[in-house]
Predict the 3D structure of the following.
Amino acid sequence: MSTPNIVELYGVTKAFGALTVLHDIDLTIQQGEILTLLGPSGCGKTTLMRIIAGFEATTHGRVTIQGADVSYLPPDKRPVNMVFQRYALFPHLDVFDNVAFGLRLKKWPKERIREAVQHMLHLVQLGEYGNRWIHELSGGQAQRVALARALVNSPSVLLLDEPLAALDLKIRHHMLAELKRIHQETGTTFIYVTHDQDEATILSDRIVLMNKGRIEQIGTPEEMYAHPRSLFCARFLGETNILTGAVRAAETDTTYVDVGPGTVKVPANGAAVAIGQNVSLAIRPEALQVSRLAPGGAGGDGVNALDGVVEDVVFMGSRVVYSIRTSVETIKYQETRSVDGIMLAKGEPVRASWRPDAAVLLTH
Amino acid sequence: MMKGRRREAMGLALVAPSFLFLLVFFIVPAVLLFVCSFWMAQAFKLIPAFTFDNYSRALSASGFYLLTWNALKNGLCTAVLTVGLSFPAAYFIVYRTRGNLLFYLILVSWFSSYLVRIYAWRVILGSNGLINTTLMQLGLISQPLEVLLFSPFATILTLTHIMLPFALLLLVSALRDVKKEYVEAARDLGASNTEVLTRVILPMCYKGLVGAFMFTFVISAGDFVTPQLLGGRDGMTTGILIANQFRTAGNWPFGAAMAFLLLAAFLIVYLGFVRLLDLLRLAPGRRFHD
């Protein structure tokens, strides 16, 4: 029986001796999507991928692929293929034979192997490279061969373990676009492991953010960025300003938080908060509005506003990032560079304010 | 330009000592010996000449073939046994253990001298030795087994014991290059454990395999001490014959000619072994398409 979910994990727990690296993970992966396992090193993302590939056994829990329980199947019996971090291309075989490796094991007839390998080499734009030895390839080319070697087996799921980590920045961005194209052309489900939030946001249909062996949040990149559900998530994806304070009042859909001398009005996040409870607020640097204060005319902090002084200006081409020191926290403000140039100077007194719905209330 | 030249000078300086050593103590003597193999000897005196007599004399004696066959047999049996025993051990050490304890324990047997180990085997295999007395006390045999000692069996057993750490060292370092991710990649692509061995591990440690086999083979087949002390009458080898020409008969040219014939036989074995691995598809750098 096939299900719309191509991979399903039920209560997957993994312990190495006394160390538990995965705690009771439930996760479903949908047919055809690019799902990223994102998190800092040691969060368990690679172990989770290796469990799906069959290189690690679960301590508890089950893994199904296309509806069939594969928990006890060795890697060679699972309908998945993997692209390894350092590619692991066989140095004793040339490019063609590397790509043909899986098909030869399946005892395909020679002609079909030739066709399939050539087709796959063309897909990764290495049509003329069949006769090259592995040591003659550049990093980007090796990456493509590794992709071809995995994809030629038409896996139900392609697993990619930090495949771009060994490439330099320029090639990395190019390869991301290539991965997207190849995903579109083959329609294969991708599970992609990375610690790089940029790769994850550019590539993914959905991101699974992991921390300390648990899933922190699952969502589209846009959801994750706009509505982080925890401090960890807010900090891990993109730049963010974190303000902390105690709850002054809680209404059904609005919470008031004392931050330094002022009060912040923020949409309630559904979680129950008690008066006086310490909470955090996340505000993206680009969600602020900053206006110049008249010299000497300090206005004092009001609702959703903090007064401060420009401490640093970093010019980043299309963007300018200002650090503003306020009475509670040094916050970052980012604006798109206007045609008039950089608007604020170091040392200028400014007021930073934001719309209530630009802030996210975080209780943990 | 200067930089390239300095690099070159540096390279030469690094290579020079070992090259000089080999030149003085191996290449020059070998060339002299080769020249000598065309000379004649009369009453312990060397007479410069250019004759193939020494070669034809060796090649026309049936004893030479028999003894060479013995030498090659010793070498091949020892090499097959040694590589056959040390490969699984090396595999276990590289892929199944984290530390190097087992590896060091096996290397420790090197700490005793070659001769000591030969005599140790005499004690174990002799008529009153460990094996015979145990078997007799168990009532399994009534007479001591004489074939244990002074037989090709004793020679091969001892040579295997001596060569095992060498082969292990070579195979462990070769296997260490076959990183676990290659094994995993092959498994991921559908290879069974046996297929991983024949399609990835063996081709990737080809050099170590050929090195371990030939190293063991050449040293065992050319050895004249072990067969002399343990081989018995049937265990005579070309090595002993050659040694006798130099030490007692005083016929250097004849000894040299036999030494080069033996060398030729070794080369044939080498080519045969390499060809065999190629036929078994265990050689790397081979294209399987076109």
